[in-house]
Design goal:
Helices cover 25% and strands 22% of the residues. Strands 1, 2, 3, 4, 5 and 6 form a 6-stranded antiparallel β-sheet that branches.
Length: 166
């Protein structure tokens, strides 16, 4: 399975709040060499690392594609650009963030791009909570750990709550 993480914590000038932006981005990806199979619920999550920045809205998509991992990553970056993503500083607030989390069981070799699976996905509640919703038995191809077990070990300092209305 291929998983892509979505996140935003700034209001988009055209699409509105982060939750609405994520729904529109999801629709924009479907059909462009991509078949979106499922989208997790949306979650409000505290910034990582902890900061005074606005909380994020996050979700995970499961999808199929005929694109290579590198081509998929390029398409995700192009989509971020179309939606006005500005890259200023690491972990800065943003109108959209798209991350290639996992591409089947591929494990990248050192120096390969993209790095698969995403190097910090198992340390982030904003990834593991929605990914575990989609597939609690997903196995991390590098560590062999199961998604629900990974989720249970994430520090409680990372806050996450399901959005009820979106």
């Amino acid at each position: 399975m291929i998983y892509v993480g979505l996140g935003a914590n700034l209001v988009h000038p055209i699409h509105g709040g982060p939750a609405n932006t994520l729904k529109i981005v999801r629709k924009s990806l479907d059909g462009r060499h991509i078949k979106v199979l499922r989208m997790s619920d949306l979650y409000e999550t505290s910034p990582v690392p902890v900061s005074d920045d606005p909380w994020f809205v996050n979700a995970v998509l499961s999808l199929e594609t005929d694109l290579t991992p590198r081509d998929l990553l390029q398409l995700l970056h192009k989509t971020e650009n179309v939606f006005g993503r500005e890259r200023s500083a690491i972990n800065a607030p943003r109108v959209i963030d798209l991350d290639l989390l996992a591409y089947h069981d591929i494990v990248s070799l050192p120096g390969e791009i993209p790095i698969l699976p995403h190097p910090r996905l198992d340390q982030r509640i904003f990834v593991m909570k929605p990914l575990s919703e989609l597939d609690p038995e997903w196995i991390h191809p590098r560590t062999g750990h199961v998604a629900r077990e990974i989720l249970s070990k994430i520090p409680s300092t990372q806050k996450c709550r399901r959005l009820k209305y979106f």
